Amino acid sequence: MTPDVTNRLVYLSTAVGVLRADELDRIWLRARAANAAAGLTGLMLFHQGVFLQVIEGPAAGVASLYERIRRDRRHANLTVLESGPVEERAFPDSPMNYVSARNLSPGEKQAFTDLRAAVMSRPALADLGLSDFLAAFSLRTA
Ligand SMILES: Cc1cc2nc3c(=O)[nH]c(=O)nc-3n(C[C@H](O)[C@H](O)[C@H](O)COP(=O)(O)O)c2cc1C
Predict the structure, then answer these.
(1) What radius of gyration do the chain's Cα atoms show?
(2) Would you say the CB of residue 27 lies under 6 angstroms from ligand 1?
């Protein structure tokens, strides 16, 4: 494994119980600081109790962060949609761009709902339209 290969990992998960806005903000603020220190960037969306998170950066950093996140009891049912090397980051400028439900446009909410439906119904993850979905979010700020 080459140490400077950039990896991307994208997963969906469901929140355990009701997470209040201030709890989500706390997760995000800590995440942002830790990710900045580790050279990681990405995106976190939350809508209707479901997280979508994109983590990008050095392969080892992405893997060790995902190990920690996977064990976090504030969410469950983690489903990895993408994991592996990428040419370049989709979210190079933010240690974790968090777009809360409040800040999602109706079109973005629909795109998120459609993606979740596609994940539930497709036997293969290849044709989810994930890269288009991420490209749309890479152009926006919270
Ligand atoms: C949906 C979700 C996303 C998270 N994203 C990150 C993240 O990007 N970076 C991070 O350091 N922690 C993130 N966390 C928090 C980690 O799961 C963990 O609590 C934190 O890294 C501290 O881990 P430690 O107590 O083992 O040091 C996230 C937690 C949740 C529930």
Answers:
(1) 14
(2) yes
- What average pLDDT does the structure give for the chain? 92
What is the tens place of the pLDDT at every residue in 66-83? 999 999 999 999 999 999
Is 66 close to ligand 1, i.e. is its CB under 6 Å away? no
Q: CA 53 to CA 31: how far, in whole Å?
A: 12
CA of 27 to the centre of ligand 1 (A): 7
Q: How far apart are CA 101 and CA 139, in angstroms?
A: 18
Q: Is the CB of 11 under 6 A from ligand 1?
A: no
Testing ligand 1's pocket by substitution, the residue of 8, 23, 30 carrying the most ligand atoms inside 8 A of its CB is: 30
Domains of the chain: 6-138 (3.30.70.100)
